[in-house]
Amino acid sequence: MSSPDLIEPEEMEEAPPRRRKGIYILPNLFTLAALFGGFYAVVMAMNGRFDQAAIGVFWAMVLDSLDGRVARLTNTQSAFGEQMDSLSDMVSFGAAPALIMYAWGLTGLKNLGWIAAFVYCACAALRLARFNTNLKVVDKRYFQGLPSPAAAALVMGFIWMMHDYELTAASHGWLAWVSFALMIYAGLTMVTNVPFYSFKDVSFKRSVPFVVIVAIALGIALVNVDPPRVLFGVFCIYGFSGYAVFFWRRLKGRRVSLIATSKDEPEEEGLHR
Question: What is the band of 124 on the pLDDT scale with cuts at 50, 70, 90?
């Protein structure tokens, strides 16, 4: 008789082979390219080429907007990609604009200058951390606070426009104070609860009227005519639009919080103050 504790070989189930964890190449290539844009911007600023630094950050914005869409379209989302994207954003839209603005316009303010740059950098880190933790419970139609790419565009667009006018903070002292105010505004607005439209409910799979395509073409042409001024103007409007939405909701007596009571339906009316 065989021992009851022994199991015959044919009765043993074969364990399924473990799949080796890997990294999806395509979306992470976009993320790495966005990270390079931020790194390139810092290098250009160190060489005094602030217009190229601004272009590097704007290219990082474009690439950052594509990596998530590419991951969803190709079904290659991963936890690694999410973390990589956050780290890339911190470099390109947090540290890089803070360092570039300090080098361009804040050195003359001494301690106040680097404090303003640090406030911006710290707020970018806090905003990204809050975004990651509140991802499942925030109304996806809006960002909670100014998104870090838009804050970076506001800062870098200003530098690019002033460089195009051949104005520097060294020769025009008032620009240092404008730079200081802009950094504090962009930084603190990132960590507020003010709602900024996210455009995430815009579907590229839907048909649109012909006039929409014409408007997009005109917008691209307008940007190409004068990129520094047009881009800075667009992001100025967006950078203040959240406060307009906030006060409009207050006047109408509507809820202004973006935190949903249901994780399944963040767009529902069950939003608390």
Answer: very high
The per-residue pLDDT for range 76-114, each reduced to its tens digit, is 888 888 889 999 999 999 999 999 999 999 999 989 999
In b/e form, how buried is each residue of 33-49, taking b as 16+ CB within 10 angstroms? bbbbbbbbbbebbeeee
Domains plus CATH for the chain? 25-252 (1.20.120.1760)
* 259 pLDDT above the threshold of 70: no
Band (pLDDT 50/70/90 cuts) for residue 254 is confident
Contacts of 239 (CB under 8 A, 6+ apart): 146, 150, 151, 154, 185, 186, 189
Residue 265: predicted pLDDT: 43
Is residue 142 within 8 Å of 196, Cβ to Cβ? Answer: yes
Q: How far apart are CA 147 and CA 248, in angstroms?
A: 20
